[in-house]
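Retro notes, structure queue

What went well: the backlog is down to a handful. What didn't: a couple of records were mislabeled last round, so from now on we paste the full input next to the output in the thread. Example, using Phosphoglycerol transferase MdoB-like AlkP superfamily enzyme from Bacillus chungangensis:
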Amino acid sequence: MLKKATHFLKSNIAFVVFLIVITVKLHLFAKYTDTLFVLKDAAYFKEAFKALFKGNFEVFYEGLFLISIGSILVLSFWTILLKGRKHYVTLLILDVIISFLMFADLVYYRYFQDLLSVSVLAQANQTGDIKDSIIDLIKTSDILFFIDLLLFIPIVVYLFIKKKTVNNLSFMTRSITAGAALVIGILFISGPIQSYIDKYGNQLFTQNWYNMAVYYRTGLIGFHALDVYNYVDDHFINKKVIAEDQEEAAKKWFKEHQQKLMEPTPFAGTAAGKNVLIVQLEAFNNFFINKKVNGQEITPNLNRLLEETMYYENFYHQTAQGRTSDAEFLANESLYPLSSGSVYVRFADKEYDALPRILSENGYETAAFHSYEKSFWNRYVMYNNIGFNHFYGESDFEPGEIAGWTLGDRPFFQQAVDKLVTFEKPFYGFLVALTSHHPYNIQAEYQKLNVEGYEGVFANYLHAVHYVDQAVGELVERLKKEGLWDETIFLAYGDHDYGVEEYEWMLGVAELENTPLHAEMLLNQIPFFMHLPHDEGKGIYSQAAGQIDIAPTILHLLGIDTSQLYMMGNNMLVEDPHIVAFRYGSFTDGQVYFKASPEFLFEKGTCYDLESMEEIEVNACRSRYFDAREQLLISDDMITGNLIKKFKKEQ
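Corresponding output:
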């Protein structure tokens, strides 16, 4: 018996080693991303087995250890059926694939705080364009994901060349072993998931708003398996069909919202017939506006704009995985981005009530400007669909100073104006800046600030935004020189946060106490400047607003009818509080701020009162939370179901 057991173990040693190695790597991934893998580490096993003898399995479900083991077993059980060298080679291939997937996820997480999905991988042809950012995000310690391969590859090659046959168990024995591995794997997966569903329902798995929430319940392998399943199901097997009751809910919501957008304000139509110029600034946070480092103003030009514009000091980015493209989508289409991937890539062929198309239909010449490749984020397809008459990309600009990735924002803005002054009036210009892009390695000749006391990415970031501030200042002066300043609605805002959680320095520059709420808000806040002809309405506004509110506000100023438009944003010129919802479940209305839990459970979220800046009972945020959630779900239906096209046909 002992001899048979020893033989059995030797025959399956490769599978056991594979199981251990991948488990260790998943634990390492969780450690690097600061996510929970094993509750209390070693104490987990001691407490879990104590509970097991009492008939309580719940302790095993804490963290991701059990479900990760189950996922590995389900993923690889079939390799046990393979005999000899095929068994070893197959396990090695799986090891390589899983290791590279974990590595890719980790690099992506460091910038986006999210995991790769199939829809993001569909944009993989763009990774070469952002190689500098990718390289900067890789750490030496990442080699640990591949170090085992240095041993395993030579062993497998040796066995293959020497034609060694290690596993000579009978097919029946291998089949029983593989079947047992599959059953155990399924039990290890189904136990934690069913326990979660029994407590909280299955909405997390049927309505994925945020990938990390799924990861916290399924583990890394489980997340990717579910993501692949959902993608195949949505795009090939069961393309999403919006139920009739969902359509009716969306119609009802928009009917009420369209009436709300028509509420009068003193600003209604005051800029009728004027030009519109939007400048979207790359990775531009708000915490450095009107602040100094070592006695120097970080953004002196934007600070001066405070005196002649409408400045919203509580303005938030609402982007998700699509980042810059999400910001563009929010501003021009006034719908929320998707929880996974970019609308620009996944649904560029759908119909939208887009700002450039609306303005084009009202006599505007419209143009988008971006000093990079036109194919990036699928812009050349999306821009054409949403009504831009022109799109000027990298090849359309004359060579100039290189700052950051490519043509600096200073010559970029000036060359854009060169083109805009040739347009028929009125015009709509949409400028997507680029210089202050991660990793913020702006060239030495443009590093003008004394950043002593700061280092690394944060120091580079301060140099980059200082350069961009100069570019905006020169742009404003050019508009005044051309006689356009008082003939144009001018807007400048950030597209998303700068992507690095260096809270201590960030809060220090902002001169705020280091608290979780301050850190959360500052990372999400971006500047928003809006200049109306003759400085009308200038001043600082404290109400909460977000990127989704930009298009409806512009149309209100231009006096263009919004009563039949499917835009989810609010008119920022109406002073009543409204929800600013974030894709990952948090929201604010200027009175409270709700921070969603990683598990995406309302009860585990945190509600803050913004007057006292103190945590309050979570139920104080309940009604607004479900309002925000409804908006996100309706927006998803409008996009994936192409409901705008359908609703307009029915009108």
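Agreed that this is the format going forward. Reviewer comment attached to the example: The chain has two domains: 2-237, 269-569.
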